């Protein structure tokens, strides 16, 4: 059963309000996370609490319990010269930018002469999220996973 301190593997399909698939797990690669450590959006984490291997569920998550509401003060002007591929830059393009000690996804919302306007809202901010989930595995977290606050999937983890 899923409780805090369990590592959970699950497959998911994420659709927006229009029913378009905006994200999904790869067929042989379920998402692995540490329950209770806020590795996934709060609305989904709450819905998974107490579930078991083999359970399938549909979860609707409001923006507040998902990637947050759209915020107006999240835009920034950046000089065009700061972009390596300035010629290919277009409105709607997304890129990762380091903010503090983490990477945020930014979206280009406007290009004016030598300036680029970017928006740091998460691409799914303001969206109601529909998750279809099937739970593949549940195990106890290791001591180092609990210490790090995230799941280690065996290979590919370098610390
Ligand atoms: Zn770690």
Unreliably modeled segments: none
Distance between the termini: 28 Å
Largest sheet: 5 strands, antiparallel
Percentage of residues in strands: 35-45%
Explain the overall architecture:
The protein starts with 5 loop residues before the first strand and ends in an 11-residue tail after the last helix. Helix content is 8%, strand content 40%. The protein has helices at residues 42-48, 143-148; strands spanning 6-15, 21-24, 31-34, 56-61, 75-79, 94-99, 102-112, 115-119, 129-140. The mean pLDDT is 91. The strands form two sheets. Strands 1, 2, 3, 4 and 9 form a five-stranded antiparallel beta sheet that branches. A four-stranded antiparallel beta sheet has the order 5-8-7-6, with no helix packed on it. It has 159 residues and is mainly beta. The chain binds zinc ion. Residues 148, 150, 152, 159 line the site of zinc ion.
Gist?
Helix content is 8%, strand content 40%.
SSE layout:
Layout (H helix, E strand, L loop, with lengths): L5 E10 L5 E4 L6 E4 L7 H7 L7 E6 L13 E5 L14 E6 L2 E11 L2 E5 L9 E12 L2 H6 L11
Antiparallel strand pairs: 1-2, 1-3, 1-9, 4-9, 5-8, 6-7, 7-8
Zinc ion binds next to loops.
Name its key features.
single chain; 159 residues; mainly beta; five-stranded antiparallel beta sheet; four-stranded antiparallel beta sheet; 9 strands; elongated; binds zinc ion
């Amino acid at each position: 059963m899923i409780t805090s301190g369990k590592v959970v593997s699950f497959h998911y399909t994420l659709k927006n309000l229009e029913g378009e698939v905006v994200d999904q797990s790869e067929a042989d690669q379920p998402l692995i996370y540490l329950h209770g450590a806020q590795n996934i959006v709060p609305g989904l984490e709450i819905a998974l609490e107490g579930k078991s291997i083999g359970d399938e569920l549909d979860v609707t998550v409001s923006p507040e319990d998902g990637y947050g509401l759209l915020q107006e003060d999240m835009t920034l002007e950046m000089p065009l010269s700061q972009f390596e591929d300035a010629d290919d830059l277009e409105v709607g393009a997304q890129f990762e930018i380091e903010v503090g000690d983490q990477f945020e996804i930014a979206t280009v919302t406007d290009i004016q002469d030598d300036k680029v306007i970017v928006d740091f809202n998460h691409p799914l901010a303001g969206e109601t999220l529909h998750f279809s989930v099937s739970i593949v595995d549940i195990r106890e977290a290791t001591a180092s996973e609990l210490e790090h606050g995230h799941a280690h999937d065996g290979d590919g983890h370098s610390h």
